[in-house]
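Honest question from a wet-lab person: if I give you the sequences of every part of a complex, can you actually get the arrangement of the whole thing, not just the pieces? Trying it with mine:
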Amino acid sequence: MLKKERQAYILHQVSLHNSVLSTDLSNSINVSEDTIRRDLNELAETGKVIKVHGGALSKSFNSFYLRSDVYNVDNKKIVAQKTVSLIKDGMFILTGGGTTIIELARLLPETLKATFLTGSIPAAYEYAQHPNIEVIFIGDKIAKKSQIAVGGEAISKIKAIKADLCLLGVNAIDTLYGITDNDWDVVQVKKAMIEASTQTALLSISEKLNTHQRIKICDLADVDILITELDKQDTILEPFSKAGLTIF
Amino acid sequence: MLKKERQAYILHQVSLHNSVLSTDLSNSINVSEDTIRRDLNELAETGKVIKVHGGALSKSFNSFYLRSDVYNVDNKKIVAQKTVSLIKDGMFILTGGGTTIIELARLLPETLKATFLTGSIPAAYEYAQHPNIEVIFIGDKIAKKSQIAVGGEAISKIKAIKADLCLLGVNAIDTLYGITDNDWDVVQVKKAMIEASTQTALLSISEKLNTHQRIKICDLADVDILITELDKQDTILEPFSKAGLTIF
DNA sequence: GTTTATATTGCTAATTAATGCAAAATATTT
DNA sequence: AAATATTTTGCATTAATTAGCAATATAAAC
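Yes, you can. This is the full assembly:
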């Protein structure tokens, strides 16, 4: 087994179990613990895992984004964690794609029984890992860049839905420009999702607040909840609160 | 053996096994390790493989899932490789899921311009990695076990399609029992896919020949091509050939 | 069809990389 | 604080790589 292969295997194990023990790895691939340790150190140096006494922990637990580290994962995880509390048993939830949504999918409690509807391949994959979650995929042509289904078929399917909650990762949000994005097809889908839900929550790391992009999805008035990694009281959030959004 | 031939052989080995050792190659084609190394370096410079200490790795050696846990990968890869030759530019291809199909997705040439329609999340993900392939996802409720969309929605969507070719990984195939599977929902989808295509090719490692399961998909007469890792002339394949299947 | 240039290959020796081992030094647990 | 487990360090061993050179093979020129 080549060194890189071994490291790939280790990474896979880490993403699968969130943590590994040097001893276990040593046994399962028959190399000395020294070698494992050296591998883990290399992987830690390049930021792929977090080295701890006795083994290593996953950084951005993922099979999709194994290579490219997700930007700002830590904050995204905070956002995702806050979002979990909004989700109750029995809900019908429409969600988009994006790295924050993926983090959310991973943080969902095992016991949660809910139905998730999405057009994002990575998100669907993650939801499907949960034993008690029903996943409905909204199919259509897959946009390569974002790995989500876009097009008329998908939109009319979304319009036929009435969901309890819509969860969207946000690209740019601003009190003046509203919620904006940079991909026409994706915007159409997001619009439809917001309309199809009784309540919409936006997931956004604070960095994206007060920025805008080319294409408008909707006004702040059209959505309900804003979830960031910041404290509810943070002054940056005040304008959004005043615009009528509930802050989490 | 010419240099180009040798490098083609090396590339083939790499795509088949995901990794090669310089030593092995040196032995199997009787040239010095130096030559192999020089070849690998050339292939690495043109981006065909990833050179590592001791050998080389396939460029796509880790993405969606690691193959180490896939049963009988090598044979599945041979099946997949044979299947590639059936696919031509411009085709509309309906495919199921399953590990053999995933291998196929990975072996598709970069230059291929075709449209793939599938209800399998892992397959869609793999297809979406190709620059010139259009992916249409057939959405519906996702069956956890198989990660494919099942249900009336998906089936009626499939029925609205007329595809050039249907590629199905097979669970069990027998001259007497026909093609069988063990999941009712999946069977419905496969049935619909076969009906919606002018031609159907079955991908199956030989191990699955002459086995059967609970639920019938169709008779041998309803499909056209059988692709296994075996040689066309193999006696095991004779009964299938006699049943009217074209063997690859 | 020679002859000349160019590429390819294999060999040797020196260098570098990868791995495992053992003893000492740290952590961690009880 | 004692017992146990993990890490560090330095070293030995083996394997793989590099670089230079000689021997062939292949292509190009005459």
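Two things worth pointing out. Chain B touches chain A through 38 residues (CB under 8 Å). Chain B has two domains: 3-58, 67-247.
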